[in-house]
Design brief:
alpha+beta; L-fuculose-1-phosphate Aldolase; two-stranded antiparallel ribbon; 10 strands; Aldolase_II/adducin_N_sf; Aldolase_II/adducin_N; Aldolase-II_Adducin_sf; Class II aldolase/adducin N-terminal domain-containing protein; actin filament binding
């Protein structure tokens, strides 16, 4: 913006001032209803719940495939088995995420031994922006030792994750965990997007010489309270699942599970 005092005077640049007035965004509890509709459906039959979770896991792999989170043989998503909580379901080795069906999934115990299904070899992987971000000094877990085959390495990563929903593994990639598969998938997709945004913001700040505008601690806590809790993760994840459910002629409804269209 420029200002002039007469027709024969030079224009003088005037920097526009940024509005610094603080406003409250309101009660974060208003983001979601506090009832059972914002939580995954409950089952009285553990075998029925197993079938439901296996299908949700299949859909999760389709979501990852749609986002390009599939690189050859690498990568996995797991869900704990409700019938035998000491084991979990995972994708088979050597099958592209977009092709995985419910019957292709295999169940392994905590040592990696297959107890239901075909052969399996577990690997980890990273997304483009997640790996780029994890090559910086922002990582939570710094001891990258290559592909994770050792039990000790897995325990160290789990200890580092603790009760958090996500971890940045140095020179490796992103890791998310959640009380529902919908939340874990949603948080992974969002974290990858946040890494992309942060890398772009850092590059912009470096190029322009202007500092980044950081979110305040109180504002960050309020935002987390509104959308970062398990119910927020589940609700966000539903929209991702609804896209791939169309392939199966299904649609997820809050609190009711999957129904035919």
């Amino acid at each position: 913006m420029t200002s002039t005092t007469s027709s024969n005077t030079a224009t003088t640049p005037v920097e526009s001032s940024r509005v610094t007035t603080q406003h409250r965004s309101g009660d974060p509890d208003l983001a979601f209803q506090t009832d059972d509709q914002i939580y995954p459906p409950k089952f009285g039959d553990k075998y029925e719940e197993r079938a439901y979770l296996k299908h949700r896991l299949t859909l999760a792999f389709r979501i990852f495939a749609n986002y390009g989170f599939s690189e050859g043989l690498a990568g996995h998503i797991t869900v704990r088995d409700p019938v035998d909580p000491e084991s979990f379901w995972v994708n088979p080795f050597g099958l592209h995420f977009s092709l995985i069906r419910d019957e292709d999934l295999i169940r392994v115990d905590h040592t990696g031994k297959v107890v239901d299904g075909g052969r399996n070899r577990r690997l980890n992987y990273g997304t483009t922006y997640g790996r780029a971000f994890c090559a910086t000094d922002h990582v939570l877990y710094t001891n990258f030792a290559g592909l994770v085959f050792a039990t000790e390495e897995g325990k160290a990563i789990a200890a580092c994750l603790g009760d958090r929903k996500a971890a940045l593994l140095g020179n490796h990639g992103l890791l998310t965990a959640g009380p529902s598969i919908e939340a874990a998938v949603a948080w992974f997709v969002l974290l990858e997007k946040l890494c992309e945004i942060q890398l772009a913001a850092d590059a912009s700040a470096a190029g322009s010489g202007k500092p980044l505008v950081k979110i305040g601690h109180e504002e960050a806590l309020s935002t987390h309270h509104a959308i970062g809790r398990p119910e927020g993760g589940y609700f966000t994840g539903l929209t991702l699942f609804q896209v791939v459910e169309k392939e199966f002629g299904e649609m997820t409804f809050l609190g009711r599970g999957v129904e035919s269209l």
